[in-house]
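Continuing the series of single-chain predictions for the mutant panel. This is the parent chain; the variants come on the following pages.
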Amino acid sequence: MTLDGNTIASYIDNSSEVFGSKSIDLSAYADGNHQLGVTAIDVNNLSQSVQVAVNLVSEDTTPPTFNKSQSKVVKNADGSYDANLLFDDAVSAVKEGKVFEKWQTKALTTFSMQVAQFSTKASEVSVEVKDMYGNTLKQDINLETFNQTQE
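Parent structure:
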């Protein structure tokens, strides 16, 4: 792995996994835009490299936001709702969240990353969504307010 052309980490993992993740500490690097490079080498010594632009930030104090325009709710013929709710974070990233039926304390569903998918008979839900820095969005969402189609 490289940042702005300088090697920052190297891993040897003889795993057969296609997908993987590794943690890297970028705290020594300045805030701002950088180029992150990743090179993977397979068992046949064939390699593939990719460069992506990243914006490093040392602090994020803003919570995630609910992206209603990219979310979808369908009201079914039986009155239940199928929902795909999308959340964004402008600085870091959405880490995880929970969806509750309004006035309930047990989570209807938990999710990782940006999208909450669930079905419910309740027209109102509450969400708690955390970003990578622990900032939390708490919001009530009325599922009736979406442009819906019946299935």
